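Hi,

Apologies if this is the wrong queue. I'm a grad student, and the batch job for 15205_t:CDS:1 from Cetraspora pellucida produced an output file that my downstream script rejects. I'm not sure whether the problem is my script or the file. Here is the sequence I used:
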Amino acid sequence: MILAMNKTTKTDCEETIWNAINTCPVPDIVHYLNRNYIKNMKKWALWACQHSSILLQVTTTNPLESYHSELKRITSKQHEFISACNKIIKLDYKKELDSEKTAINFFQKCISIFDFNDETIEQIHKFPYPIQKLMTSEITAMNKRVEKRKLLPNLIAPKCTCLFFCRYLVPCKHIFHQHLFGQASNKLLTINIWKRLQDMFVKEGIAIYEGNKITKILVPVQTLEEKEMKARRLHIGEIMEKIYDRYRTTEKKSNENIATEFIKRLDMLLSQILNKYTITEI
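Support response: The file is valid. Your script probably expects a header line. Output copied below for reference.
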């Protein structure tokens, strides 16, 4: 599932699922995957993109196992029923206090960010603490983009197609880059946009990622031609990603000569296509 989350196209996601099924050595698991995944690929992909964005950051069951371990330590088969219940209630009360403390930190704790725009920091501090950490990491990534002198993303709205934005629905390194270094007359993160993003977490908290929530963000209306152009670009992206994955598989499972031959034949075929469809003909 973690591998599938890092795929950006339908073709690549489906190929990941089929690879998992074909390489699985346990027949019962293969049967389970065929029964529960194949007919629901789109639903599982939606779950991976929306429901588990925050949840999958916890890659272990240590918190649950810790609770069970402590429960086993303080209880015994020799305890009377009332005594065992009292110990369980006491442990649950302790865990509830820990949960309340975590909830307070979730909404009130603020992350420290040095040498950055004060106005932006003030807005980031209005988000839940885990979201502050996510956006801080994107600010660090944005600073690296600036150091490498990368071009502006040329965004015209506070929306991006990168994996981070699609997963968390908050400003990414590309949006920060465009907002801070773009034209002063085209600031992406206005006060209204910040408020709209912050309001997503006021009632739901992280639960915004646990269901199919409709989040409204100001986006320019696309014409039919623009939508068709976007669909074509997505399709060509799927084709290129499929080619790249096939090459990586060839390089991993074959020798150097076969990988080199793969590149040569691919280059020859692409040259024929590019020569046929010149810029003037397009």
